[in-house]
Amino acid sequence: MAKVTLEDGYVPSDDEPFMNERQREYFRRKLLNWKSEILREAQDTLTALQSENENHPDLADRASSETDRSIELRARDRQRKLTGKIDAALARLEDGSYGYCEDTGEPISLKRLDARPIATLSLEAQERHERRERVYRDD
After folding, report:
1. Which of 20, 41, 82, 86 has the most beta carbons within 10 angstroms of its beta carbon?
2. What is the DSSP string of the chain?
3. CA 1 – CA 100 distance, rounded (Å)
4. Among positive and negative, which fits the CA dihedral 33, 90, 117, 40?
5. Residue 1: its pLDDT value, please?
6. Nearest to 25 by CA among 81, 69, 90
7. Which of 50-54, 56-60, 107-111 has the highest mean pLDDT?
8. Sign of the dihedral through C-alpha 125, 127, 131, 136
9. Which of the residue ranges 7-16, 41-50, 63-72, 118-127 has the most confident prediction, judged by mean pLDDT?
């Protein structure tokens, strides 16, 4: 995912009010660009899968082709789920809750949002969540 800047080279900064209009626009564009990239890749995959309708006479070639196809389809399924998370983030931008931790209500760091614009938890809350998951998974 490429770094997004507004026309004037704007990049969100901690020196300005959190989730001001420019920050919201920055993240909205970043999310829309990411979604567009995912949809374009999905279309490329669909086109490639449709054109690769070869009947491989060699069993090893056929198995390799099927494995490649399976991996690609799993990747696309993950991307499909990601577009849902991107849509949810865009909805949070609209309702004003974007950038705030679901657990604590505190702002999520701009650095984290820039790296993971679909984040719903602050880094600390995410770490707590992952520790709880590990504890319960070990039981």
Report:
1. 86
2. ------TT-----TTS-TT-HHHHHHHHHHHHHHHHHHHHHHHHHHHHHHH-----SSHHHHHHHHHHHHHHHHHHHHHHHHHHHHHHHHHHHHHT-TTB-TTT-PBPPHHHHHH-TT--S-HHHHHHHHHHHHHHHH-
3. 22
4. negative
5. 56
6. 90
7. 107-111
8. positive
9. 118-127
List the structure tokens of 101. 């931790």
- The pLDDT tens digits for 10-43 are 999 999 999 999 999 999 999 999 999 999 988 8
What pLDDT is attached to residue 61? 74
